[in-house]
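Collaborator request, handled under Task 6.
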Amino acid sequence: MTFLDTWMTGGGNNDAQWSNAEYDDLIKGAKASSDAAERMQMMHDAEDIAVGDEAIVAPIYFYTSKHMIKPNIEGLYYTPLGYHFFGTTTGF
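Structure tokens returned to the collaborator:
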């Protein structure tokens, strides 16, 4: 799914052995949901726990991309993972 499931209780890559039942429920719910908006909200809520409340993750840098786009440009789709799609609004 995402890097967010790395820290699920008992996860194979959860080397910190961190555990939070609310976090686990949010990740499981996001994986099971077919509603994109609901899934995104659950991932954001889980991220808030991991980065904010519990601070198990401390990002030290973020990838950036510099683009100048005129307001009248249409058809550009930018994903949260940093991919740009031109000429479509769906990304495919």
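The cover message to the collaborator said: "The radius of gyration is 16 Å. The first strand starts at residue 76 and ends at 78. Please let us know whether this matches your experimental observations."
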